[in-house]
Amino acid sequence: NIHTKSYLRHVESMKILPSGAGQISELKAVILGDSLASEENDLVFPSQPFSNQALVSSPQKYLEMYKRSIEDPAGFWSDIASEFYWEKKWGQQVNSENLDVTKGKISIEWFKGGITNICYNCLDANIKAGNGDKVALHWEGNEPGVDGSLTYRQLLERVCQLANFLKDKGVKKGDTVIIYLPMIMELPIAMLACARIGAVHSVVFAGYSAESLNQRVVDCKPKIVITCNAVMRGKKIIDLKNIVDAALLESSQNGISVDLCLTFENESAMKKEATKWQKGRDIWWQDVVPKYPTTCDVEWVDAEDPLFLLYTSGSTGKPKGVLHTTGGYMIYTATTFKYAFDYKDSDIYWCTADCGWITGHSYVTYGPLLNGATVVLYEGVPNYPDSGRCWEIVDKYNVTIFYTAPTLYVTRHSRKSLRVLGSVGEPINPSAWRWFYNVVGDSRCPISDTWWQTETGGFMITPLPGAWPQKPGSATFPFFGVQPVIVDEKGNEIDGECSGYLCVKSSWPGAFRTLYGDHERYETTYFKAFAGYYFSGDGCSRDKDGYHWLTGRVDDVINVSGHRIGTAEVESALVSHPQCAEAAVVGVEHEVKGQGIYAFVTLVEGVPYSEDLRKSLVLVVRNQIGAFAAPDKIHWAPSLPKTRSGKIMRRILRKIASRQLDELGDISTLADPSVVDQLISLADS
Ligand code: PRX
C-alpha cells in the first residue's frame, strides 16, 4: 500500500513535539524551521493541559492507532465493536467489500451476521451501565424560558411507548416511516422508536416543501408519516400539518397513499383546534402514544439490516435516498464522536444541526447517545430573539462541546464552559477559523473541522483535539480506518503536496451501502468516475506536511449554510414557472451562508423582466424545494452561453456571477460569444 506508507511518512516527518507544546512561535522555529512561517501555514498547538487529558494525546499515539486501523481494519474495528452489545456476535469475516466497478457489483459489509439493535445500545445499555438518571436530552424551545429535559430512563420510556404504538399499527421490521418534525424531543424519540422495532426511518427536514415531501413519500412509500402541527421559527409560525396534507394529497394522486399520519401537538406553536384534520387518517400523538406501555422488546436485527434512508441532493435528477445499515454505522458514529470531540462523561454537548440532515442523525442522535452523552436540542433559529441566543444556550446548559456550521456568529457571554469546538458543512476559511478560535473559544478550545458527507455516515477527515497542531482552515488528517486519496483527472493517485479530486480507498464501517431502490445510480455516481475508489465530489489539496484542505464541490452541488442543494433541482423548479424558458444555476461566495444561489434565467419570448416576476420565480423554488433553496439573485439572461453542441458553459456563468470578469478565460468555443457581454451588461440591472 504505497499511498498509506507515504502518507504515514509524511506525518512522521512532521516530527511534532510531544504534547502540550506551549508557545507557537518558538516551536515553529524549533520543529519546522522558518519554512512554515507564512500565514496559511500557521500552526496552532493544543495547550498542555488539554493534551494531557486528551484521549489521543500526541501524534505518536494517533499514528499508532491509525496504522493499526489501516493494516488490520478487521482487528481494529472488532475490538471497538466488542464494547457494544450484540445479541449474537458477527461471523468469522468482519468485513468484505468490492469498490471496483470493473470487478463486479459494488458491495460493502461490516459485521455481517452480527445481531444487535442501535436503540438498545443508545438507551438500555447506558441505563444498565448506571446512566439511567443522567440527562440524555436537554430541550431548549424557540422562546427563551421554554425548555425541558429527559433522563436516559425517561427517554427509553418515551421511545418504548411510541415503538409499541407503531407495532400496534402494523409497522414491522423493514417498513419505512417518514418523520417530518422540527427539533423537538419527539424527533429523536421517533428515530429511536423506529430503530427499536427494526423499521427504517427517513427523516425529512421540516423546511422542505410539500412537493419535496411528496417526492420522498412516493420514493420510499412509508407505512406512516410522523409530524407535528406547527413550529415557531423565531417569530414565524410554520404550519407543518398543512404542508404534510398537501404532500400526502399529491402522493395519493401519484398512487401512493399513506393511511396514518401521527401528529404531535406542538402547543407552543399552535393549538389542536386550529389544526386542519383528516378524519380516519390523522391521529394526535398525545391522545394515543402515552397510553402504551413504557417497555417494549427490542427487534434484533442483522448488522447489515437497513437503519435509515436520508435523501440528499445530487448534481442531476431527483434526490437520492442514501441508505445506511445498522452495525457499521453504529460503531462508526460512536467512535468518531468520541475521538473527534475528545468526549468525556462530564461533557455537555450541543450540535446546532437539525436532525433532518445527516449531522443531526450521526451527531445529535446516534453518536452522542451511544456514548451516554448529555445532548442539547434547540428548536429555534440561532438569532432569535437576538444574536446572543446561541451563547445564552451555551451558558445556560454549561455546554462544553459546541458543534456548528462555520456560518454562525456573535460575541457576548462568557462561554467559559466550552472546551472543544466543531465545525462542519463547508470549508472554513482561515480568518473565520481564527475568529471561531479566538473569540468563541477564547483561544483555548481546539477546533474539530470535520469533513464528511451524508454518504460517509461519519467524520472522514478531522482533527483529534489534543493530538497535533492545527492549521486554521485545514481539516487535517484522516480518521482511523479512512484512506483518503487525491487523484488527478485520469484517476491516478497523486502523492505528496498536491491537489485534485478527493476519493477514498477501501471501505469504512459508516459508509452508505446503496441508494434506495437504485443501486445502479449508486455505482455510477460514486464509483465509476475513478474505478476502485469512492469519489466524494469534493476537491482537496494536501500540503507538504500532509494536512488536507477541502476546496469545495467539483460537481454541480451548492452548499448553502451547510445544506446541500443540487443546481439541477433549482433549475427544474425555475423552469416549471410558465414564464421561464431556461435557467442555469451556479453557486457564489456568500458572506453569511458560505455559498449563495445565483440563477441565470431566460424568459419566454415576449415576457418582460419585472420585480414581480423575479419574486414569483423565487417563490416557485421556495414552494418546490423549500425556503432554504431560494435563489439569492436572479440574473436576467436573454440567452445563455453555450457551446456549439448546446452545452451551457457554467464556468463562464460562475465567473460572471462572482464578477471575476477578467478571468472569463477562453470564450471562443461559444456558439455566440456576444452573449457574454450581454450578460455582463445586465449584471446589476
Ligand atoms: O462539500 C463538502 C461539504 O459538505 C458536503 C457534504 O454535504 P452533506 O452530505 O449535506 O453533509 C453535510 C454535513 C456533513 C461535502 O461534500 N463539507 C462538509 N464538511 C466540510 C465540507 N467542506 C469542507 N470542510 C468541511 N469540514
From TrEMBL:
Family, as annotated: Belongs to the ATP-dependent AMP-binding enzyme family.
The protein's name in its UniProt record: Acetyl-coenzyme A synthetase
Gene3D superfamilies in the cross-refs: 3.30.300.30, N-terminal domain of ligase-like
Keywords: ATP-binding, Ligase, Nucleotide-binding, Phenylpropanoid metabolism
Swiss-Prot/TrEMBL GO biological process terms: acetyl-CoA biosynthetic process from acetate; phenylpropanoid metabolic process
Cross-referenced Pfam families: ACAS_N (PF16177), AMP-binding (PF00501), AMP-binding_C (PF13193)
Pathways involved: Phytoalexin biosynthesis; 3,4',5-trihydroxystilbene biosynthesis; 3,4',5-trihydroxystilbene from trans-4-coumarate: step 1/2
Sequence ranges assigned to domain AMP-dependent synthetase/ligase in this UniProt record: 130-507
All residue ranges annotated as the Acetyl-coenzyme A synthetase N-terminal domain in the record: 62-122
Enzyme Commission number(s) of this protein: 6.2.1.1
Catalysed reactions, as listed in the record: acetate + ATP + CoA = acetyl-CoA + AMP + diphosphate
Domain AMP-binding enzyme C-terminal: 569-647
UniProt GO molecular function: acetate-CoA ligase activity; AMP binding; ATP binding
Keyword ATP-binding: yes
InterPro entries: Ac_CoA_lig (IPR011904), ACAS_N (IPR032387), AMP-bd_C (IPR025110), AMP-bd_C_sf (IPR045851), AMP-binding_CS (IPR020845), AMP-dep_synth/lig_dom (IPR000873), ANL_N_sf (IPR042099)
PANTHER family: ACETYL-COENZYME A SYNTHETASE, ACETYL-COENZYME A SYNTHETASE 1
